[in-house]
């Protein structure tokens, strides 16, 4: 049974509407002023509100505005009762959030028809909201599953800290690191284009494939060969038109050398320099289009010597492609400047970095997945 709330300071109108609506099978509650009506609305969460425009204490426009501002009343259908029929008055009511109008004196057939139509829309909005909540819960479960696949932080002999913040719709970020032998550590981070499970599933497949080393005859010490093998395996024509970017590196701790290759991914950022000195910045990136775009792509390796007191950051573009209120995008250069400012010797700075990144984001959640690895080599 639908709950209808009537807000009108005229007792005769409340009585007529109560009798009429109860005959239609609705549960009806009547209040005599706007403040009481708003309190009842917050208590009952009615499917539909019929509210007089002109009332003492709080008029119908203000009641409507406050009802529409309450997330718990978002599906409530709001009808204004009014003797005002100018276009300007109707516009004022619509701007306050009114869904429909009924003119005084009330015509019974019109009222019942508008109530039926309003309740149909309420039910539709309620069903859509329920489905949205179910979908968001499923995305949250998927995000937890992705998080369960990610590796634990590493303390020695190399320090690795990571952060993974999925967007509301969940994207295609994933990362991993593992020892190939006692000296060589493989590290990578990938980002599948798009959002939702269609973006997440390819990322999970890549992680499982590389973690199990299931690609036969592949030299996992050579990043360019790893990217070539992934490109052959994950052509977008066979992956629901999904492609992904990736940065893959192998660090030899004995030789203090980092061999890396990238495929359309943002550059990794290597900061070096003693505590108290100005950090030296290197952007580590090699030419290469995203994995899956073209079948015949050649990827290349690059080699970097790791100096003492160096820190490497590998991240997805969600960490810096943050839209600002003025329409501008907080970009890669600004993020790298932040990394330089936060560098503090041998201690991890990831919490400080993330705090600053979150302060740049004007929204409660990020528009895209955000993933970042901080690797301290000493």
Q: Can you walk me through this structure?
A:
It is a single chain. This protein has 378 residues and is of the alpha+beta class. It has helices spanning 11-23, 34-44, 60-69, 87-96, 108-149, 197-212, 223-233, 332-342, 350-360, and strands at residues 3-7, 27-31, 48-52, 77-82, 100-103, 159-165, 172-179, 184-192, 244-252, 257-263, 268-272, 280-284, 302-305, 311-315, 322-323, 329-330, 370-376. The strands form four sheets. Strands 2-1-3-4-5 form a five-stranded parallel beta sheet, sandwiched between helices. The longest helix is centred in the middle third of the chain and has 42 residues, at 108-149.
What characteristics describe this protein?
single chain, about 375 residues, alpha+beta, 5-stranded parallel beta sheet, 9 helices, elongated
In short:
Helix content is 36%, strand content 25%.
How many strands in all? 17
Helix fraction? 25-40%
The helix tally amounts to 9
* Strand content range: 25-35%
- Spatial order of the strands forming the largest sheet: 2-1-3-4-5
Shape: elongated
Radius of gyration: 30 Å
Structural class: alpha+beta
Mean pLDDT equals 89
Low-confidence runs of at least 5 consecutive residues:
none
Termini Cα gap: 68 Å
Question: How would you characterize the largest beta sheet?
Answer: 5 strands, parallel
Run of helices and strands: EHEHEHEHEHEEEHHEEEEEEEEHHE
Q: How is this fold's topology laid out?
A:
Blueprint: E1 3-7, H1 11-23, E2 27-31, H2 34-44, E3 48-52, H3 60-69, E4 77-82, H4 87-96, E5 100-103, H5 108-149, E6 159-165, E7 172-179, E8 184-192, H6 197-212, H7 223-233, E9 244-252, E10 257-263, E11 268-272, E12 280-284, E13 302-305, E14 311-315, E15 322-323, E16 329-330, H8 332-342, H9 350-360, E17 370-376
Parallel strand pairs: 1-2, 1-3, 3-4, 4-5
Antiparallel strand pairs: 6-17, 7-8, 8-9, 9-10, 10-13, 11-12, 11-14, 14-17, 15-16
